[in-house]
Structure formats: structure tokens, C-alpha cells
């Protein structure tokens, strides 16, 4: 199997990385993933699949563009894959694990119509400026119950350094769009899980405070929506430290643009944690803000159950059904 005759492989042999020739394959030409190959399809809490690969955005910290070009599977291909999963996997939930589902209004509507015909409740990942808020009701009606949003920061200066936006003016438009998307999620009864990246190179404590203040305003929107009878929404911020990945745009400019950044050791191949993003902001400071970010969430029982189904990765079912292999 590990041979130059098979394209698109990379493997470690005698301490050296070897690769085979690259052969580009259009997503439409790929076969559907055969879930019958799983040893025990019923042993998973949630079924997973992807409707696209890569990402069209250019965030400096991310490796998606370095790993693979952005490409979408056709809706026909996605429908075949979903139908196959329905026939094999008994789970009631499907996690669409694209880096960004969509983007594009028509694409999102196509996916919602397709999912409405399936038996699945589902979750997606997106960005606030790639998700039209007026589509949230249709998405919720089609079974959407959780959105993981790559939000990262509410500091305009940090958003510019991340290359999520090009200017502070654009950053303010980004934050306005975020408020609209969060409000639409809550009104539609969808659980919102914003990813929060703290301690980005160059961050000062004011940048961290800006994120906490913004999320506190988002919590107010969530509480207002939860006052309506039957609303099952929730607000589950997901803070994490900043990781520097070898091969990313951020890694290539780190020494020149952020000479004061202090990094931890390489715990995983090509990954290092930012311990101090700027003088005066150490890891303990960032950990303190991680706790503050978590504290502004809203965690009603139904939202926690939904979050754990997709993001918590509970292992009880897997361990029970795979006991002989553990």
C-alpha cells in the first residue's frame, strides 16, 4: 500500500518522510465514503461527514489553505453520501465537519433543503460573515441544532493581526455581523458555540477584555431568546490558547513581526502554544481570561446535551460496543 505507485500518499519510513506523486481529484469524481467499513457503525454517538474540503479564507494561523485547495462536493454527491449514512448508521445526529459549511446563500439553502429530507438533526461549522442570519429559521426547521462558529476574537486589532479582516473598519462590520448571527441563532433555538482564540501574538490585556465584554453582550441576547417558551437555545463559548502551526502564515512571520512572543515546547509535531503573546501578558493571564469567557455562557440542560452530542465526544457508547478491542 505504501508505494510510489499509489498517488497522494505521505508516510514515515526509516525516520524519513516519503511521498508519492500528487494526482488531483475533483470532489465530484470521488466515491462516497463507505461507512460499512466501520467495525461497528452503531458504536458511535454521532455520524460525521463533510460536504467540502479546505477553506476559501486566509486566516494567518490556519493550515487549511496550506494543506489543500478549497473545493465543494456537489449537492448530488452530498445527497448520495447522506442517504448512504442513513442506511448504515442508526444515529439520529449528523455532524457536517466542513471547515466552513457554505459559504454562499444558495449553497446553504441547498444543504438545508437536503437535510430537511433526511432523518438527521445536525450541526455545522461556519464563520459569522459567511452565514446570512435570515437563513437561520430555515436551517433550524431542517434540523440544525448547533453551529460552531470560528469567531476567535472581538478585538478589532486582533482580528486584523489574524487576517480575518483587513482593517479595523472591516472588523467593526465583522462584529456587527456576529451580533446579528448570534441573535438569529438564539431566536431560532440553535445552540451557538463560538471558538475563542486567546493570547494571539501581539495581544494585550485590553484585547482580551474586549472579547469578554463582547461575549457578555451576546449572553444578553441569548437570555432574551430563552425567555420564550420552548426555546432550546444555548450559548457555549469554547476558549482555547493560541497554537502556532508549522507551515502556517503566522509561523513564517512570527520571529520578524512578533519578536516578544514566548512559545511553549512542541507538544505535537509542528504545534506550539503561545505562552506569552506580548510583554506583561503571560500564560496565567490568558488562563484567567479563558475562565472569564466560559463564565459568560448560558448552559441550559438541553443545550448541554446537544453540545456533548457533537463537541463533547462522549465515549460510553463506543467503549460499550467495542469492549473486546479495549
Please give the structural blueprint.
Layout: E1 10-13, E2 16-19, E3 47-49, E4 52-53, H1 64-67, E5 71-72, H2 75-88, E6 93-96, H3 105-116, E7 121-126, H4 136-141, E8 144-152, H5 156-161, H6 168-188, E9 191-198, H7 205-226, E10 238-241, E11 243-245, H8 249-257, E12 262-268, E13 271-276, H9 283-295, H10 301-312, H11 316-321
Parallel strand pairs: 3-6, 6-7, 7-8, 8-9, 9-10
Antiparallel strand pairs: 1-2, 4-5, 11-13, 12-13
Chain oligomer state: single chain
- How big a fraction of the residues is strand? 15-25%
Q: Which ranges are low-confidence, i.e. pLDDT below 50, for 5 or more consecutive residues?
A: none
Distance between the termini: 27 Å
Query: Which geometry do the CA atoms define?
Result: globular
Overall mean pLDDT = 92
How many strand elements? 13
Rg estimate, integer Å? 21 Å
Total number of helices? 11
Structural class: alpha/beta
Q: How would you write the strand order of the largest sheet?
A: 3-6-7-8-9-10
Helix content: 25-40%
Pattern of helices and strands? EEEEHEHEHEHEHHEHEEHEEHHH
Biggest sheet statistics: 6 strands, parallel
Amino acid at each position: 500500500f505504501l508505494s510510489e505507485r499509489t498517488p497522494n500518499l505521505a508516510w514515515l519510513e526509516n525516520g524519513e518522510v516519503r511521498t508519492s506523486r500528487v494526482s488531483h481529484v475533483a470532489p465530484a469524481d470521488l466515491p462516497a465514503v463507505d461507512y460499512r467499513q466501520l467495525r461497528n457503525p452503531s458504536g458511535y454517538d454521532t455520524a460525521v461527514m463533510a460536504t467540502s474540503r479546505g477553506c476559501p479564507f486566509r486566516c494567518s494561523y490556519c493550515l487549511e489553505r496550506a494543506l489543500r485547495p478549497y473545493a465543494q462536493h456537489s449537492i448530488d454527491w452530498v445527497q448520495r453520501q447522506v442517504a448512504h449514512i442513513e442506511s448504515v448508521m442508526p444515529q439520529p445526529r449528523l455532524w457536517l465537519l466542513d471547515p466552513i459549511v457554505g459559504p454562499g446563500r444558495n449553497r446553504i439553502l441547498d444543504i438545508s433543503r437536503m437535510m430537511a429530507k433526511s432523518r438527521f438533526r445536525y450541526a455545522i461549522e461556519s464563520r459569522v460573515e459567511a452565514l446570512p442570519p435570515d437563513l437561520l429559521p430555515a436551517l433550524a426547521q431542517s434540523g440544525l441544532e448547533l453551529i460552531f462558529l470560528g469567531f476567535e476574537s472581538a478585538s478589532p486589532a486582533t482580528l486584523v493581526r489574524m487576517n480575518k479582516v483587513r482593517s479595523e473598519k472591516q472588523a467593526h462590520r465583522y462584529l456587527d455581523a456576529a451580533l446579528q448571527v448570534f441573535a438569529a441563532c438564539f431566536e431560532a433555538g440553535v445552540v451557538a458555540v463560538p471558538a475563542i482564540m486567546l493570547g494571539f501574538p501581539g495581544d494585550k490585556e485590553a484585547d482580551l477584555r474586549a472579547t469578554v465584554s463582547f461575549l457578555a453582550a451576546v449572553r444578553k441576547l441569548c437570555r432574551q431568546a430563552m425567555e420564550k417558551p420552548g426555546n432550546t437555545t444555548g450559548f457555549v463559548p469554547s476558549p482555547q490558547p493560541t497554537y502556532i502551526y508549522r507551515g502556517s502564515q503566522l509561523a513564517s512571520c512570527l520571529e520578524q513581526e512578533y519578536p516578544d512572543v514566548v512559545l511553549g515546547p512542541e507538544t505535537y509535531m509542528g504545534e506550539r502554544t503561545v505562552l506569552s503573546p506580548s510583554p506583561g501578558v503571560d500564560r496565567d493571564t490568558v488562563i484567567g481570561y479563558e475562565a472569564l469567557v466560559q463564565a459568560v455562557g448560558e448552559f441550559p440542560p438541553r443545550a448541554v446535551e446537544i453540545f456533548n452530542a457533537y463537541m463533547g465526544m462522549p465515549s460510553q457508547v463506543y467503549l460499550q460496543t467495542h469492549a473486546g478491542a479495549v
